[in-house]
Amino acid sequence: MVVGEMIEERDLVIIGGGPGGYTAAIRAAQLGQKVTLIEKDVLGGVCLNKGCIPSKVWAYAARKKSEIPHMESLGFDLVESGLDLGKLLAYKDQVTTQLRKGVEALCSANQVEVIQGAATFTSDNKIGVENGHQFDIYQFKKAIIATGSTPVLPGELSDVRENVILSDALYEFEEIPESLIVYGSDELALEVASVYSEFGSKVTLILPDSLGLDASIEKELMRVFKKKKVKVIKGAEEFSAEQTDQGILVSLVDDKGKSQSIEAVYLYTSGERQPNVQDLGLNRFGVDQADDGRVVVNHMAQSSNPDIYAVGDVTAEGPNLAVKAIKHGKVAAEAIAEGYPEVDLTFLPTIIHTTPPVASVGMTESDAKESGIEYRTGEFSLKANGYAMLSGQKEGLVKVISDANTEIVLGIHMIGAGAIELSSNFVQLLEMAAKEEDVTFPNFAHPSMDEGLLEAVEALTGQAIHQPPSRKKVNV
């Protein structure tokens, strides 16, 4: 190893070029900062290259496959010959490459200096970067940690290596597995179960924990899974897995106390996310960390060391989502530029790319009940929506929870086509503490999936037009 003879000075150094890191870099450059971005692999991070984007390519393909029967009803003469995974893999690579080149071009256009190498803190204001035999040291005024996280097998699966897969491998399959066990209650596990059942795998979904969704949304999702012939097992006491000649055998006790054994070619699990902080040496330089190593930050993504910020998966608050990393990155850059931004994850949407998709923001009915609020609910089935009918996407519903006394909307939940695109509207309504009238007063395009939200709010008072009358009551 050759150690650089000089220490180079930088204003802002960012470690990690994923969504949080490159967003922070570009926003800081927009605000006049001279930015150095250090990435040991490729720009875009796990999200763009191995996670968010590849998984959504798979989800999009599954959704399009589900539309083939309706396309035939519309008069298109389609012959379904099966899925060519080779072409899908090539398309995924094409998309990720184009997006990665876009990030590279944006960094260049904003004069962000990008350095290849593995970084570590050598003091509270210096970072060492190793790249092959070269080792350089950079002294910084401010630094942002955006190193993300890595999935690891949960303890109950740590001794079973073959035929147990994490998300990275799932989107590199060269053939569809005949059978697949999906173990997990998180958004990605639900997405995997939906995608691979659509692709033709015999899927068993094991839910060890609560989904955390509103009961009406969960009920509809379980109905859809049953229709798609996905076997769902709730509860996973005494869970164990062992290798077999055919693949893997899982044994467990479900939530009804019944012992079950399931065999499949592969077992998928989202795993446990481990923050990528082990090699940074943070504990030596006044950076407080949680028990699992995640960095503790304030509302401006600032750590206990005022010159060091952290964004995304490496932070202790909130879920491991790209949307959190992106928000963190912008806020950290704006704070370093002496602004007064704030990270608020109160109305962070839950998004699940199943077919149909799910979007959930704010209080569920269970949350409202537990908080002691007098509330009311309104539901509207998409089967009664004109655009859902003509597009053949009738599965799903919209549910709204509001305060019965103030009429403030507390939560909006949807399963159905367009849910993800509508989720930003849900967030805006809750952020502005919208009342029911704020939804019912504006004009909604017709026909559109958006009308499902309007009629769900109207259903709070029994005034949904395309829904039979029902008795509404205030819930306590």
UniProtKB/TrEMBL annotation:
Give every FAD/NAD(P)-binding domain span.
11-329
Enzyme class, one word?
oxidoreductase
Cofactor requirement: FAD
Which Enzyme Commission number(s) are listed? Answer: 1.-.-.-
Key words, A-Z: Disulfide bond, FAD, Flavoprotein, NAD, Oxidoreductase, Redox-active center
Entry-linked Pfam families: Pyr_redox_2, Pyr_redox_dim
Q: Which InterPro entries match?
A: Class-I_Pyr_Nuc-Dis_Oxidored (IPR050151), FAD/NAD-bd_sf (IPR036188), FAD/NAD-binding_dom (IPR023753), FAD/NAD-linked_Rdtase_dimer_sf (IPR016156), Pyr_nuc-diS_OxRdtase (IPR001100), Pyr_nucl-diS_OxRdtase_dimer (IPR004099), Pyr_OxRdtase_I_AS (IPR012999)
The organism's place on the tree of life at top rank = Bacteria
A GO molecular function held by the record: oxidoreductase activity
Cited SUPFAM superfamilies: FAD/NAD(P)-binding domain, FAD/NAD-linked reductases, dimerisation (C-terminal) domain
Q: Where is the Pyridine nucleotide-disulphide oxidoreductase dimerisation domain?
A: 349-456
Annotated family: Belongs to the class-I pyridine nucleotide-disulfide oxidoreductase family.
Q: What is this protein called?
A: Dihydrolipoyl dehydrogenase family protein
Classification of source organism = Bacteria, Bacillati, Bacillota, Bacilli, Bacillales
